[in-house]
Design a protein that fits this description.
6-stranded mixed beta sheet; ABC transporter transmembrane region fold; binds adenosine-5'-diphosphate; Rossmann fold; 2 domains; alpha/beta; single chain; 600 residues; 22 helices; 10 strands
Length: 600
């Protein structure tokens, strides 16, 4: 229990960002701006229905007083029925338009969130929890809908009804109105209570985010969890978050529950007093029965919108709590915010060399740390000539994968420069740079989906013949021939249905399709069997034609073929050269080779 809790705290950060504090109603405006016309129509309809509502007691009063005086009231009754019908139709149209706007706001928020979530700078993904991001996209955005549908417009029509009812009551009987004002005191208290809902709502959504994260973590690592017999502990962690959401939900429920009866009793007390005082005035002949009935009807009518407005205010606060979490992600800069350094446009690598021809890669005194205070690469320098094959070797944690990440510009160097064909990669847009590179990451180089989907990620326009050719070159045809689904055979979550070697070769096939002149391959650390290894080497030979290859190698079989081997140790390049040369000159390389029984 303690272990899981501290782990989750460590990866969590605090849900709400320091940058986005409590948000006000103005923060909603940008999301409503595209819908202003419809909202205008909705407002007009709201005012119309509110007016219709207010006219009803006045018509009833005329009917009652008319009946009392023995006059014909057929016309009045017909008018009353028509009014009810029109008001009903207007409110139906208004509700539909309102909900359409609400859905529209949710849609655009989701689109913005999705676009931003896939374009954050790499360090954001290193420290954020996937599940928490997911919760913002799915559940927080949903809460914004009720702000539009329930919150804003209920407030507006509430105000109209309230003002109208007060005015009519004053006209009907100022004395009785003075009595009702006493009932309003309770309403003020209710609004104060509703204000506290925003904080409780943010807390509830944060707990939901934690719960999604905990679930995502346990399920994506289900084999580890099972093997460690940690199902119970992980379940408890999920339950702990669920209980947190439950408690925050209860706090909201208590606040809301308190608000309703407070208002209702205020109305009840006020109406009893009004009936008592009004009844005696009717008996004394100072007031007609119609006046009194209309007055009581208006009293209830006035309390209804106050009650609704308090509920709407609660919805608004709930939604603003969710908006705060959404804004926190939307306020993050995109990776491309610092895409190209300013200054003269460099000669593009595409123009420097004919398209598709191999490119040179150069590291010039590169120092880099994920945390600037703690470099993981120090003064790294090497050059990979165009069309050559270069292997990065050395103990794990030495900085080999980081080196590949710098070429892709997943991160930018702290000092020195990474150059492709002589151009500093920071002078290229990331899109242009990445278009030149095929990258095969170490552990999960394929995505959930089918073989076809995985091949088409970078080249959506490739036809089946091209896909089959790429699979052939990658020694993977047996995969599609074996399965009746062929190219549409599923690969499982992160390629779980494939072996480690098949995943790597599928990713290689993908880079073959792109024709990218540079290939970065992070070899899986897991041992491949001799046949998979042979297949991988043949696939690499196919890839190596017309390409510059940079491979993080764990198996010396991959290394002996290389034109150049670079030995990393603890963030520094400690040796470089060919296999035979390094066996003689580098004790670290000799040791690595000896472990794999290639030298004695
Ligand atoms: P290698 O590929 O040689 O095993 P890496 O480049 O993966 O080495 O890692 C070098 C160092 O950087 C290690 O100490 C590792 O803990 C750290 N590191 C790797 N990736 C990250 C990351 N995304 N955030 C912070 N530190 C990292």
């Amino acid at each position: 229990e303690e272990l899981t809790a501290s782990q989750s705290d460590g990866r969590d950060g605090d849900g709400a960002s320091p940058g986005v504090g409590k948000v006000g109603i103005g923060a909603l405006f940008p999301y409503l701006r595209p819908h202003l016309k419809v909202l205008g129509a909705v407002s007009a309809l709201s005012v119309a229905t509110a007016t219709g509502l207010l006219a009803q007691p006045m018509l009833i009063r005329s009917v009652l007083d008319g009946l009392h005086a023995g006059a014909a009231v057929g016309g009045l009754l017909l008018a009353l029925v028509l009014l009810l019908l029109i008001a009903g139709a207007a409110s139906a149209v208004r509700d539909y338009l309102l909900h359409r706007t609400g859905e529209g706001v949710v849609l655009s928020v989701r689109q913005q969130l999705a676009a931003r979530m896939l374009r954050l700078p790499m360090p954001e993904y290193d420290c954020r929890r996937t599940g928490d991001l997911l919760a913002r996209l799915s559940s927080d955005s949903t809460l914004l809908r009720s702000v539009v549908t329930g919150g804003l417009m209920e407030l507006l029509s509430g105000v109209v009804v309230l003002v109208g009812a007060v005015a009519l009551m004053l006209v009907l009987d100022p004395l009785l109105f003075a009595v009702t004002v006493l009932g309003l005191a309770g309403a003020v208290g209710a609004v104060a209570v509703a204000q506290r809902i925003q904080g409780a709502s943010t807390a509830a959504q944060e707990k939901l985010g934690e719960m999604t994260s905990a679930t995502e973590r346990a399920i994506s690592g289900i084999r580890t969890v099972r093997a460690a017999r940690a199902e119970e502990r992980e379940t408890q962690e999920i339950n702990r978050c669920a209980r947190g959401a439950y408690r925050a939900g209860l706090r909201i429920a208590r606040l809301r529950a308190f608000v309703g009866p407070l208002m209702t009793s205020a109305v009840q007390v006020a109406s009893l007093v009004v009936l008592g005082v009004g009844g005696s005035r009717v008996a004394a002949g100072d007031m007609s029965v119609g006046d009194l009935v209309a007055f009581v009807a208006l009293l209830f009518m006035m309390m209804m919108p106050i009650l609704q407005a308090v509920g709407a205010y609660a919805d608004l606060q709930t939604g603003l709590g969710a908006l705060r979490r959404i804004e926190e992600v939307l306020s993050l800069a995109e990776e491309t915010a610092d895409d190209r350094r300013s200054g003269p446009v460099p000669v593009s690598v595409d123009r420097a060399a004919p398209t598709g021809s191999p490119a040179a890669i150069e590291f010039d005194g590169v120092t880099f740390g994920y945390d600037a205070a703690d470099p993981v690469l120090r003064e790294v320098a090497f050059r990979v000539p165009p069309g050559s094959r270069c292997a990065l070797v050395g103990p794990s944690g030495g900085g080999k994968s980081t080196t590949l990440a710098l070429i892709e510009r997943f991160y930018d160097v702290d000092r020195g420069a990474v150059r492709v064909d002589g151009v500093d990669v920071r002078d290229l847009s990331r899109a242009e740079l990445r278009g030149r590179i095929g990258y095969v990451e170490q552990d999960a180089p394929v995505l959930a989906g089918s073989i076809r989907e995985n091949l088409l990620i970078a080249t959506p326009e490739a036809d089946d013949a091209a896909l089959m050719a790429a699979l052939r070159a990658a020694q993977l045809t047996e995969l599609v021939e074996r399965s009746p689904a062929g190219l549409d055979a599923p690969v499982g979550e992160s390629g779980a249905l494939l072996s480690g070697g098949q995943r790597q070769r599928l990713a290689l096939a993908r880079t073959l399709l792109t024709g990218a002149p540079i290939l970065l391959l992070d070899e899986p650390t897991s041992n491949l069997d001799a046949r998979s290894e042979h297949a991988l080497r043949q696939a690499l030979d196919a890839v190596a034609e017309h390409r510059t290859l940079l491979i993080v190698a764990h198996r010396l079989a991959t290394v002996v073929d290389a034109d150049q081997i670079i030995v990393f140790d603890n963030g520094r390049v400690v040796a470089a050269g060919g296999h035979d040369e390094l066996t003689r000159s580098s004790s670290l390389y000799h040791e690595l080779a000896a472990h794999q029984l290639l030298v004695r």
